[in-house]
Each structure stands twice: as structure tokens, then as C-alpha cells.
Amino acid sequence: MSDNRTKVRLLQKQVWRKGLVSIRVTKPEGFTFTPGQFVRLGLDIEADGKTEYAARGYSLASVPSDPLLEFFIVEVPNGLVSPRLCALEAGSELWLETDLWGSLLPDRLPASQNLWCLSTGTGLAPFISILRQESVWKKWPTIVLVHSVRLAEDLAYTQLIQKIKDDSSLGGGSGKSLVYVPVVTREATQFLSRRIPDLISSGDLAETAGVKFDSSASSVLLCGNPAMIKEVRALLKPMGFQAPRRGEPGNLIAENLWRQ
């Protein structure tokens, strides 16, 4: 249990579909963060006459200047924390651990022509925060956001993504562009339908985005399913993509949050 935890209140809840929600909670005074970081949300859970504390890590989908903190949460079947978080209603209290975690920080990468943001499921959350920072667009004039989900109803935040795309200070600025590539793997749609590693190895992802995986001109951020992250890393390594190391800047960073 973290010593740095504080009670917050759920003020707003958006249900994308049953078991997939975004919640906005009160922001503790003085709390701030860097886009791409995550914190742990906790609950006091009653079972067998006892109350136990349990917490899981969730990326911040809000930006530091927002008055509330936003999180994108999917219910994990038989999970201990996520089903309870998804069931909370406005007015409910929960714990926020104020310790900040995570390595998915764009500042760790050098500027280049393109930035690939590859996500599965709720791994989209940190990119919703990152892509609303003007500093990111100064480093990467072209950003490709890939969001892979099982069903089309899981494609959340599409209106906000369009807003970022149109914003003159962000993806709609002079010489800048946000390329959004939705991927739906479990039903027939107009979108790409295979897993991200398969789309990379076949060349279909680069062709659809109109951007090449070129290690001399591109950087990559990964967040989501650990299997996807492992496979994408293996595919991109021979192409010259590697994580930052001491003394070497690198051009690929991955965040693996597996929540229950």
C-alpha cells in the first residue's frame, strides 16, 4: 500500500459500452504529472467480513492543465479492481496513489519527422494525453495514432481524436498532420482487421498510414497488450529501432500495463 494516497471523488463517467468506461475524478491540490505517466487507483474491498485495499495502475488520459483527472478503464473478467471501478457511479470515492510511474515519455526521444503511437485497447489512454501537448507536435510534424480493438464499439475517443486532428496548434497546424488508423480484429468493418504485428510485417500499416517505419526518420511509442509489444519490438529491432539506453537516445519506448 502506498503511503502517498488520497481520497478522490468520481465526478463524471462516460460509458463507451458495458465494461468500458472513462471516469473523471477530482484532482488533489498541487498534483501534476507528465503526459504518458500512470498512477495507481485503489479501492477498499469488502470480502468475508474483512476490508482489504487493492490498487492497479492506470494511465492518465487527461492533460496536466485539466481541472479533473481522467482514466480509461476496461473491465477485466474476474478482475479484482477493474470491474469495481467500472461499476462506480458519480459521487463515489476511491483512492488515488499520487506516486507517478511510467517510461512512456516523449521527452526521452529525440525529434524526428514521424512519431508512431501504437496502442491496443485502453493502451490508447496515454496517447490521448500526449497528443494534446504542443511540445510533441514541435518534435514530430507527422504523428500516426494506431488503435487496435476487438470490436468497433471499442473505438473510443474518436471525436476527441478528430478535434486534435483539426486543432491548428496540434495536428491541424501548418505542416503538421495526425494520421488516425483504427484497427478492428474480431468483426468485419471498413477498418484494417489484423493484429498490429501482422500489419507491420505485411507492410499494410505503413501503406495505410502513408508513413514508413524508417528508423532514421521515425520514433515509436507502444502501449497495450504485452504480446503485441513483444512482437512489435522483435519486428522493429532489425529495422534499427531500439529503446533509449544510457548515453544513447534510442527511438522506441514501450509501456506495458496489464490490469485486473
Structure description:
The protein has 260 residues and is α/β, with parallel strands linked by helices. The longest helix is centred in the C-terminal third of the chain and has 11 residues. The protein is 20% helix and 34% strand. Helix 5 packs parallel to helix 7. The strands form two sheets. A six-stranded antiparallel beta sheet has the order 4-3-6-1-2-5. It has a five-stranded parallel beta sheet with strand order 9-8-7-10-11, with helices on both faces. The chain contains seven helices and eleven strands.
Which percent band covers the strand fraction? Answer: 25-35%
Q: Please count the beta strands (DSSP E, at least 2 residues each).
A: 11
For the record, give the distance between the C-alpha atoms at the N and C termini, rounded to a whole number: 16 Å
Q: Which structural class fits the helix and strand makeup?
A: alpha/beta
Order of helices and strands: EEEEEHEEHHEHEHHEHE
Average pLDDT, to the nearest integer? 95
Structural key phrases:
single chain, six-stranded antiparallel beta sheet, 260 residues, 7 helices, five-stranded parallel beta sheet, alpha/beta
SSE map:
Elements: E1 5-17, E2 20-26, E3 38-47, E4 50-59, E5 68-74, H1 82-87, E6 93-101, E7 114-120, H2 125-130, H3 134-139, E8 142-149, H4 158-166, E9 177-184, H5 196-202, H6 204-209, E10 218-223, H7 226-236, E11 252-255
Parallel strand pairs: 7-8, 7-10, 8-9, 10-11
Antiparallel strand pairs: 1-2, 1-6, 2-5, 3-4, 3-6
Helix pairs in contact: 5-7
